[in-house]
Known about the structure:
The chain is α+β, with helices and mostly antiparallel strands. 29% of the residues lie in helices and 21% in strands.
Amino acid sequence: MNYDNNNIFAKILRGEIPCDKIYEDDFVLSFYDISPQKKIHALVIPKGKYVDLDDFTVNASSEEMVGLLKGINKVAKKLGISVDTGKGYRALANISEHGGQEVPHLHFHLFGGEKLGKMI
Ligand code: AMP
């Protein structure tokens, strides 16, 4: 699938649509999900144009990959849910049709702030 420049997260990255920002650096933008499924529900997206995790894995630079993983860790720390707090969280990426992905720009959901129970 080709990257759609008009997807909602592309518009957020360009500043055309507002978001409730949590964190930003050269590699990632993080903001609260507009429709939270858990007490804490954040999204972390790479700044590069990647449709999904497969696209990212094949086409992103090593620097971008490290930037995304470190970004997730920084956001978890900022939200007070990282492992060193004794809490923890769930990071989840939906991938393509069977994965239930709705927005075609790679994003990790970070769920936390409460016990999450079984995954499915
Ligand atoms: P997915 O099904 O993995 O593609 O998840 C897309 C997520 O994006 C959903 O959880 C939506 O609630 C969320 N979402 C859609 N539009 C916005 C927006 N403008 N700001 C924040 N989150 C959004």
